[in-house]
Amino acid sequence: MNHQVVTYLAEGVDWIRFDVDALLGQFWNNTIEGLSQGSIYALVALGYTLVYGVLRLINFAHSEVFVFGVFAAYFTFYGLGFRPGPTVTLGIGELILFLLLALIAAMAVSGATAVVLERVAYRPLRRRNAPSLVFLITAIGASFVMQQVLFIWRGGNAEQAIRLLRPEPVFTVFNTAVTNIQIITVLAALVLLVVADTFINRTRLGRGIRAVAQDPDTATLMGVNKERVIMITFLVGGLLAGAAALFYLMKIPQGASYQGGFLLGIKAFTAAVLGGIGNLRGALLGGLLLGVVENYGQSLFGGDWRDIVAFVLLIVILMFRPTGILGESLGKARV
Amino acid sequence: MLAAATSLVLGACAARTDTASGGDTAGTGNASAPDKPADAADPRGDGTAKCSGAAIAYAGTINGANAALGLNILYGVQLAVNQHNEANKDCQVELKQFDTEGTPDRATGVVPQVVNDSAILGVVGLPFSGESKATGDVFNQAGLVTITPSATNPELTTHGWKTFFRALGNDAVQGPAAAKFLTDNLKATKVCVIKDDSEYGTGLANAVVQALGDKASCQESVKTKQTDFAAVVGKVQSENPDAIFYAGYYQEAAPFAQQLFDKGVQAKFVAPDGVKDEEFVKGAGDAAPNSFFTCPCVPADAFTDFTNGYKQLANREPGTYSPEGYDAATILLKGIDKGITDRAGMLDFVRNYDGQGLTKRFKWDANGELTQTPVWSYKVDGGKIVKNVEIG
């Protein structure tokens, strides 16, 4: 047998390509897929944006708050008696019930995780007036600790896929099938965003959050309970991450892995910055934009360029609009 | 042979209800697992060996990443040593274990300990290509022979290391074999080759593309840890290939295969040894029954004596490179039984070795590559990975 060693330095293989045909041919598929992935980015991005708006803190451990939600949804499925293997067929009533249960579990676990994280990691630092650098390194440390706890508990392999709902085309747009899971994800993300937006802008608690974001000291003097506001901010961010976790697990059934939040967290944070950090609607816009642009980039330049395209876009937009597309808004005074 | 082929056809059809084909699977090659060769080297020997203070070592991942792969090998080695020691009361060989955690960083710290233990006459390891590359020169300078049962990067035998021997075919063998399987067995004329960004994936993908020639109708790449493959799936769907070859590991292969399946892509999914793991079957869900694997490893199904011993020792079925680990250890034990007491003698013994093992005939060329390297294809049946046919 021939044992001549082939040199694998790819000669004649393009290191970049401009496949306009693929970009145009795949345009609608990429757009629709990108919007559903972008909705997940947006829901996670809201958590980054809220905490940043109130505390000026980049909560790097938010990606793990999300992953805890993914595991909660997974074990809800498991607890309901579902096992890895072929997708089962469920009645519509059962399906909605089970998904709602998983949604509640994921939101509860992510919300609780976020609140506990705030209590354990950030509140003691705030009491001691620690500089912001300390908060940053604590956030990174907390992220690692939570990740490794999952690793020790569940090991390095992803959980075996459990799926309650198979993606089935519901209707087609421009010859591209739109699946039930995509519809659920996008609609739910929009609904949750409207709810969050209304909560922040129309309710008493929301006014408290905006007040603390604008000027914590004055807000305290005016009788706003700052600690409570901060706790609620983390809770809301956690609840939204929990919802994102369920939709993510429905889309990627193999997603329950200890390091499954890392890349998604960075992308969501990017989405938050892209739209204007501290701005709820900006998070949605940034998430959706990032989701589609990633796919366009992959089709146009090839898979190796997927992440590069997303981050080059971020840099370009920040060059022209340093506060993001919609600008910062949570802390802005409104009449 | 005919019966085996028929059952394969039935198995392939039963596994998927929505495709009519599947009968072309067993097109060429031998479909029955090889029996234990009559002249296969047995670690027990004739039971009259005499030695004292001799040891061999396993160095590789034990608790680290991808530990399952390392343990498959370690148990194979342990079985050979146990069988040897039970049969030869006057020659008790010690098996020393060193955990490299599968990473080059850790391996460079551990390998000097192996080299400095003068009782060790030979090493089975290191399992992975990256760690092998990082430590090959240390072994070479110490004159300590290493037989790797699973590192497949072709480049490893180009460094001029006199002590490096590979107990299986490398990726330059697996690549063309995979291409042959795709075109001859699966009768594919349009193949999409998808690679991840690892050393292993890119190297293997290029070898497959070269061997496929113009039958490689599309090429795409994905990133390690990517989970959303929508754009690649869309591209593959528009190409409508007969088969897909995924060069990478199971972590990405599982969601990728499932997303292909969900989009209605009917092409056969073929992946190499890095995906051939039960973890893939569990992860890919509905898509798993449509999958095939290529691997320079020989199915252990018919090695009854080996399999029984392995199950007793490890409390589970032999894994991907277990028989290869057993064979490698057996060669070192044969050397000790011959009365070899120093590393130079062992190196000389392995270099000139020519004998049948469980998996294949072991005879190395000057670079440390085997002269005979079978590659097998595997498939998913009943939620388990089972042998398909030998490619060639």
Automatic annotation (TrEMBL), chain A:
<dbReference type="GO" id="GO:0005886">
    <property type="term" value="C:plasma membrane"/>
</dbReference>
<feature type="transmembrane region" description="Helical">
    <location>
        <begin position="229"/>
        <end position="250"/>
    </location>
</feature>
<dbReference type="GO" id="GO:1903806">
    <property type="term" value="P:L-isoleucine import across plasma membrane"/>
</dbReference>
<keyword id="KW-0812">Transmembrane</keyword>
<keyword id="KW-1003">Cell membrane</keyword>
<dbReference type="GO" id="GO:0015190">
    <property type="term" value="F:L-leucine transmembrane transporter activity"/>
</dbReference>
<dbReference type="InterPro" id="IPR001851">
    <property type="entry name" value="ABC_transp_permease"/>
</dbReference>
<dbReference type="Pfam" id="PF02653">
    <property type="entry name" value="BPD_transp_2"/>
</dbReference>
<dbReference type="GO" id="GO:0015188">
    <property type="term" value="F:L-isoleucine transmembrane transporter activity"/>
</dbReference>
<keyword id="KW-0472">Membrane</keyword>
<feature type="transmembrane region" description="Helical">
    <location>
        <begin position="173"/>
        <end position="200"/>
    </location>
</feature>
<dbReference type="GO" id="GO:0015808">
    <property type="term" value="P:L-alanine transport"/>
</dbReference>
<comment type="similarity">
    <text>Belongs to the binding-protein-dependent transport system permease family. LivHM subfamily.</text>
</comment>
<dbReference type="GO" id="GO:0015192">
    <property type="term" value="F:L-phenylalanine transmembrane transporter activity"/>
</dbReference>
<keyword id="KW-0813">Transport</keyword>
<dbReference type="InterPro" id="IPR052157">
    <property type="entry name" value="BCAA_transport_permease"/>
</dbReference>
<dbReference type="GO" id="GO:0042941">
    <property type="term" value="P:D-alanine transmembrane transport"/>
</dbReference>
<feature type="transmembrane region" description="Helical">
    <location>
        <begin position="95"/>
        <end position="121"/>
    </location>
</feature>
<dbReference type="GO" id="GO:0005304">
    <property type="term" value="F:L-valine transmembrane transporter activity"/>
</dbReference>
<keyword id="KW-1133">Transmembrane helix</keyword>
<feature type="transmembrane region" description="Helical">
    <location>
        <begin position="65"/>
        <end position="83"/>
    </location>
</feature>
<protein>
    <submittedName>
        <fullName>Branched-chain amino acid transport system permease protein</fullName>
    </submittedName>
</protein>
<feature type="transmembrane region" description="Helical">
    <location>
        <begin position="38"/>
        <end position="58"/>
    </location>
</feature>
<keyword id="KW-0997">Cell inner membrane</keyword>
<feature type="transmembrane region" description="Helical">
    <location>
        <begin position="133"/>
        <end position="153"/>
    </location>
</feature>
<feature type="transmembrane region" description="Helical">
    <location>
        <begin position="308"/>
        <end position="327"/>
    </location>
</feature>
<keyword id="KW-0029">Amino-acid transport</keyword>
